[in-house]
Amino acid sequence: MFRKLAALWHSIAAAHRSEDETGAGAVSDFFLPKINRRSLARAGIVAVLAVIVFGFILIPCSIDGESMAPTFPGRGFTFCWRGKYLFSKPKLGDVVILRYTDRVYYLKRIVGLPGDTIEFREGKLYRNGTEAREPYVRYMSNWELPPRVVSPGHYYVVGDNRGHPLEMQLFGEVRADRIAGAPLF
Predict the structure, then answer these.
(1) Active-site residue, selected from the candidate residues 11, 62, 67, 91
(2) CB atoms < 10 A from the CB of 172, how many?
(3) How far is 122 from 41, CA to CA, in rounded Å?
(4) pLDDT tens digit string along 47-56?
(5) Residue 128, Ramachandran bin (φ over 0: left; ψ between -120 and 50: alpha; else beta)
């Protein structure tokens, strides 16, 4: 194993070896290359690609809260995959990332589509008068919420952790344009 890693290291270092045939400076040249037009262009391309990818396609998101436990840990990290709903609409049961403000995002599950009637009776979710099957919910609640119809262009979202009182939860109807994407992992 060590020999394979050493061979890989030597092949990488050889590609970046200095003019000196002794190999002196190969490691430092690899980590600290001489600055020239080519290296500046390479750094510029990497910077532009990083801004595009991590600013518009894969938005880094930290998870800080128990609302989706146990599906997602209370603390963690994921990327918001913006392309998920580029050519399709969110479906029931999808876990989505919602844009609350420019820098604050929430992780929730879609439990109601536009036109659905949503209610909670004795902690159980009812969609259009039928009890919803939710195998991902581990911590049941005693929520009581009268029926409400999801407005056109909106989705009804709620977290998987329903063990807290109704007053402590952030859930409800959200506009479709607030759905930023889906968690990558």
Answers:
(1) 67
(2) 16
(3) 62
(4) 999 999 988 8
(5) left
